[in-house]
């Protein structure tokens, strides 16, 4: 798969088209916040959340409106500009998941939706996982989703997670918590946490299914 930079270099209108596509989907009345509801169910109220590869703020904006302290980072300045104008209650910045630019943590949860990991330079995903792990709070979790037909296999992903000092705590086939079936599922949602670190007992360790229901 080409990287996001390669795509936007070839087509300068790609970022605008991408943002408009999500606007059209929302205007059709379709749900575009499933990823955010899952992350919301993983954390306590007023948590610190990093939206890694935030785009125009679709996920982070939803979480900020529900009282979380959200920071979004994306390599695309155009999309960051949209996020800042639409969701001023959150913090948005241009940054690279595999280079410099990640905000300082710690974060109670990190979300990476929209196939972000597959838009990175092949072989650099392990660096992204390591960088995200470095800003993750003890007991915090990372939720990342991507298509398995986009050049980044689940096996490589889980190897990268382990090398980053993390462990997979939950594997799903969709953001609406459908179970993952090896050999059949075409999409993966991986929830990872620091190896050997459980969530503090004062916090719930289960997914609140009620929060995942559409409003």
UniProtKB/TrEMBL annotation:
Domain Methyltransferase: 49-140
GO annotation (BP), single: methylation
Source species, domain of life: Bacteria
UniProtKB keywords: Methyltransferase, S-adenosyl-L-methionine, Transferase
SUPFAM superfamilies recorded: S-adenosyl-L-methionine-dependent methyltransferases (SSF53335)
Listed GO MF terms: methyltransferase activity
Gene3D superfamilies associated with the record: Vaccinia Virus protein VP39 (3.40.50.150)
InterPro entries given in the database record: Methyltransf_25 (IPR041698), SAM-dependent_MTases_sf (IPR029063)
PANTHER family registered for this protein in UniProt: METHYLTRANSFERASE, UBIQUINONE BIOSYNTHESIS O-METHYLTRANSFERASE, MITOCHONDRIAL
Protein known as: Methyltransferase domain-containing protein
Record organism: Corynebacterium pyruviciproducens ATCC BAA-1742
């Amino acid at each position: 798969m080409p990287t996001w930079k390669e795509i936007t270099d070839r087509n300068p209108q790609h970022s605008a088209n991408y943002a408009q596509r999500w606007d059209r989907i929302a205007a059709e009345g379709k749900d575009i916040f499933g990823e955010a509801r899952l992350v919301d169910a993983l954390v306590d109220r007023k948590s610190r959340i990093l939206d890694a590869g935030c785009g125009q703020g679709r996920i982070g904006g939803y979480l900020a409106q529900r009282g979380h302290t959200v920071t979004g980072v994306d390599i695309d300045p155009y999309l960051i500009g949209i996020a800042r104008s639409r969701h001023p209650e959150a913090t948005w910045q241009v940054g690279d998941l595999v280079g410099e630019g990640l905000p300082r943590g710690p974060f109670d949860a990190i979300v990476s939706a929209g196939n972000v990991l597959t838009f990175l330079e092949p072989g650099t995903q392990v660096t992204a996982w390591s960088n995200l792990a470095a800003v993750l709070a003890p007991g915090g979790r990372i939720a990342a989703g991507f298509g398995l037909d986009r050049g980044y296999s689940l096996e490589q992903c889980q190897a990268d997670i382990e090398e980053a000092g993390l462990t997979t705590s939950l594997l799903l086939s969709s953001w609406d918590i459908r179970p993952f079936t090896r050999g059949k599922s075409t999409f993966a949602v991986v929830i990872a946490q620091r190896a050997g670190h459980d969530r503090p007992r004062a916090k719930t360790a289960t997914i609140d299914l009620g929060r995942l229901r559409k409003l």
